[in-house]
Specification:
The complex is a heterodimer of chains A (about 400) and B (about 425).
Chain A (H helix, E strand, L loop, with lengths): L1 H19 L5 H10 L10 H14 L15 E2 L5 E2 L3 H4 L8 H17 L6 H11 L2 H12 L12 H14 L4 H27 L12 H15 L2 H15 L19 H12 L2 H11 L36 H20 L6 H19 L5 H4 L2 H14 L5
Helix pairs in contact in A: 2-15, 3-5, 3-17, 5-6, 5-8, 5-17, 7-9, 8-9, 8-10, 9-11, 10-11, 10-12, 11-12, 12-13, 12-14, 14-15, 14-17
Chain B lengths: L1 H21 L7 H10 L10 H15 L14 E2 L5 E2 L3 H4 L8 H17 L6 H10 L3 H12 L14 H14 L4 H27 L12 H15 L2 H15 L19 H12 L2 H11 L27 H27 L7 H18 L5 H5 L2 H13 L24
Helix pairs in contact in B: 2-15, 3-5, 3-17, 5-6, 5-8, 5-17, 7-9, 8-9, 8-10, 9-11, 10-11, 10-12, 11-12, 12-13, 12-14, 14-15, 14-17
The chains are: A mainly alpha (about 400), B mainly alpha (about 425).
Chain lengths: ~400, ~425
Amino acid sequence: MRVVGKMLVLCAVCAATLAAAQATDSAKIADYLKSLPTVKPPEYNEATRLALAANPLGCEDHPHASMRSSTEYLWKRQDKPQLAEDYEHHRAFYGCLDWHSGVNSMWMMVALIKKDPSIAVAPGIKNVLENHIQKSNIDGEMDFFTHLHGVGADFEKPYGYAWLLKLYGEIKSWDDPEAKRAAGALEPMATWFAKAFGEYLKSLNYPVRVGLHPNTALDMGFVLDYTANTRDTVLESTIRDTAKRLFGNDKHCATASEPVFADFASPCLAEAALMGRVLSSEAYAKWLDDFLPPVYSEEFALYGKDIDAVHGNNRDTTGTDEEGLPNAHLIGLNFQRATDLEWIAKGLPASDPRVAAYRRLAEINAKQGYDKIGQAGYLGTHWLATYALMYENLLEEGPAKK
Amino acid sequence: MKTISGMVAICLAGFAGLAAQSLSAQNSDPAKVSAYLATLPNVAVPVFDETKQEALAALAISCSDRPQEAPLNRNNYLWVYQKSPEILERYDRNRAFFGCTNWHDAAASTWMMMSILGQNPKIRLASDIKDIATTHFRKANIDGEFDFFNGERPEPGMNNFERPYGYAWLLKLYGEAKGGLLPDDRKMAVALAPLAKWMSERLVFYFYDLKFPYRSGVESNTAWTMSLVLDGANLSENTTLQAAVHNNAIRLFGKDKNCATNFEPQNSDLISSCLTEAALMGRVLPQDEYLKWLDAYLPPVYSDAFQGYVKPIDISHTNTTGADAQIQELARARLIALQFQRAAGMMTISYALPKDDPRIAVLRRLATMNATWGYEKLGLSGYEGQHFLVTYALLYENAAKGPAPLAPPEKPKGKDGAASDTNSE
């Protein structure tokens, strides 16, 4: 009896731990949900959409700044760089600070008027689309990308590639005369980028896990939007195979060490979101049990807490323009978390008790993102609206089937 | 009874889960460590003889005079230069570290040659090494370096050139030269002293200013930078820098737990985040504190979470047939270097454990295995590998010899000193 008693005590300890690896402790999940504040992100109405649209509209024709010159340790520049002549006819994505933001801002505007064709900014957006996506622009882009070599050959790979494909998928699946024209013009890029992205995935020995542009799970998620919209089954199966190869056996994601520095993606949530899209609900529910700590555990608590975007970095130059401004990446991280949490909820069986908790956390993060969306200057406005829209669009889709 | 046995069953399942998840927070079980050792293959320690030393030195020699490539015009998507950049006039007289692809690898290669020369002054390549040590480190070369680093920059962000990784290599090179016994070491130490002082002062501020450590397995990794710096600071008796490493290692890493060994490596890594931090902490914490810290930080050697270190790093997916061949080759070289870097980290951890700790034998066996896998792939990465990979091989070889010295060796005491003739040329 003494032994049994001891085992029972042990058992209580064990049971707690056991639950850590199980989804089934509905009572704890329900308690945890009750402990979370109910928040209201701004209502997603036309006013919100217009406010968001102002950002990409304002930056798409604002050319990238000349990047810093080299430090000239061994090589001296003889002159200053000049804007390429006639660039607006030979480049398509020359606005919004950098190439990938030029692309994702275009995606944002397209996705917005595709859903809401009568929004007041629709004509302005169509005008941008018409000006930027012409044959000569795309020829210029192709000429640039196909001539990259040496240590510069990875310009915008993989993040920019993923965005170009997501943009193309959005346009290609839009039943609209202007969209048909633009899709035709963009097609050569999409074909080339799809092949290159697939080769890139196959060349990875291991994933890239940092919460920044090259994050493998994040980028594959964008490209899954493209494959869903275009039925590119070749690239889709490459993504599924790669996801299973690189992430299939992952366990115990180190959520407690997030976020670091200037992250704009949560490595753990991005991977969990992706796997929810490539595994069956049942297989996913199991995989997720091993991968993410329970929603009510201490290791998960950070996703419900505010992100200190002002002090959250090592004075990295990646997202902070001026001392005292919040780090734009850490604001975007709120939206990215919110989107990922929605994807995770969608990946689970509808009856899973975790779904409601993930959704609530998504709202909490979206709210925090909206609270800070305008506080980071141009380093925020050139891309944050895109990340906000990804969340809103996913939310509107409702509990989609895979 | 049924209920109880059911609970016991759950209990066992739960306990297994607990064991898998958080044994890292438990004292490593010595019996299991010994049993685990018995399962490991018996691998011969790679021979490090003169031939091997020459093979490594030859690669560093051959890249030292090969100037770094012109900077790529990453602006030419939208911004164009009308003129090509020109190499600095008389760069070979005004710069010291202009070879081996980039500044930090040039510094690392110089360190490697000097270290090999120190270990084997009669190596056949000695005159080649001395030639580089002379021609790259004249007063004019070093003045040029100093002026470059100390010069005005158009933008403040550009003051970060080569900080912290390049600084760390320079300080390691300087410390080992200062503690070295050859006349060439002394000349090198004198030449580098101003630059070493300048970098040391800035790195001290850098360490104290960090709010968080950089943890990913790339050059900026804070624990790795500190490890290289400590090698140098101990030998140059730079107490300010030693203190900066000690204090900030404890501040930044002292509370770390459960390192995610199972998520190593990433595709672009050349450093093991977990092993490097564990190796550094073994050098800055007193042994009793370290043992506690280590138990909570690294999973037991026999656990599943540790087994990622017990198989060769996979480089089979690397594809060098496309336009990005150079980048692919470099990524592969980094993963090969990582085998040596892991091996060096394991040796360093083993030196921090009590003599009777059964983990010592396991870590050293695993170090040998990792180094062997590294040597097997040493030639597979072209120039992208040659220019730095061998420095990581030597880091392992040096670590395999014993703990890094805590202070400079006693200098020969002149003609009648006991050690006076052992290092004469």
